[in-house]
Amino acid sequence: MVKNNATPLEKLFGSKTRTKLLGLFFGNPNQSFYVREITRVIDEQINSVRRELLNLDSVGVIKNETYDNKIYYSANTKHPLSHALSEIFSANLADGRGKDVRQSTWEEYAKPVKNYIKGVIMTNRVPGQEGLDMLIIGDDKTKKLTHWAEVIEKKMGKPLDYAIMSEEDFSYRKSVRDRFILDLFEMEIADVYDPEKIIGISKK
């Protein structure tokens, strides 16, 4: 039962947890999430999350796949309601109410490599377009970021063209307006993880 102080979207969809899940999936349609990750990102109890995941899965608006013995959930972009849901929750993100969910997601992703990673740029590169899907900035001397990039590929559900660059190299290339960096900045940016504000751009 939705309380009287519920938001309009919560009243529309009948459940705070369901609304948060739809916002997470359709506000980030190219990403997938496992259950405990979801509970931390949307800050809801695991039993409530599991129940609503079953509900959404049963009507087909989300889908699930298994990687490394974990079940990952994501938006079913082929569902007839997918476009409408994306419109609703993309607008919700655009007005700022989804900002914390997006940021929290990348903070969660970065936890295993927090001592090595400085930032990430994700683009909306279309097939055949030159450039990268992802630039990772940080220390990869131990190859931890390389292994982490493979995990992100699984979360995104597709192979990614990515590069890993040290903070020093990135800062230098940015300062001299290196063509590689300028071309990357000109692409449509899907997400930016920039906890130390070294990248200096935002999602377009």
In words, what does this structure look like?
By secondary structure, the protein is α+β, with helices and mostly antiparallel strands. It has 2 domains: 8-96, Winged helix-like DNA-binding domain superfamily/Winged helix DNA-binding domain (Arc Repressor Mutant, subunit A); 114-193, no CATH class. Helices cover 46% and strands 17% of the residues. It is built from 9 helices and 7 strands, in the order ααβααββααββαβααβ. The strands form 2 sheets. It has a 4-stranded mixed β-sheet. A 3-stranded antiparallel β-sheet has the order 1-3-2. α2 (16-27) crosses α5 (82-94) and α3 crosses α6 (99-110). It starts with 7 loop residues before the first helix and ends in an 11-residue tail after the last strand. Mean pLDDT is 83; it is low at 93-100.
